[in-house]
Amino acid sequence: MQYAFRRHLNTSPLTYLRTVRLDLARRQLLAAAAASTTITEVAARWGFTASHFAALYRRSYGHPPTLDLHTQP
């Protein structure tokens, strides 16, 4: 099954799941009010530790998660 998954999507199931969770976390950050949401809270909701989340986020999107959270009104 993993071989078929990798062949079809060109990635492992674990990497795919991590990417989906990271994308959902980013959507939450973009929609959140900075005054009532923390990076740690969002990271934990999607199963990441804050430091691991910040590193993955920066690698994936080219900037820290705080930039997306604090750009909201």
Indicate the radius of gyration in whole angstroms. 14 Å
What is the CATH domain class?
Answer: Mainly Alpha
The low-confidence runs, each spanning 5 or more residues with pLDDT under 50, are none
> How would a crystallographer describe the biggest sheet?
none
Quaternary: single chain
Estimated helix fraction: over 70%
The tally of helices reads 5
What distance separates the N and C termini?
45 Å
Mean pLDDT: 91
Instruction: Please write the string of helix (H) and strand (E) elements.
Output: HHHHH
Shape: elongated
InterPro entries: Homeodomain-like_sf, HTH_AraC, HTH_AraC-typ_CS, PchR_regulatory_protein
GO molecular function: DNA-binding transcription factor activity; sequence-specific DNA binding
Keywords: DNA-binding, Transcription, Transcription regulation
Organism: Mangrovactinospora gilvigrisea
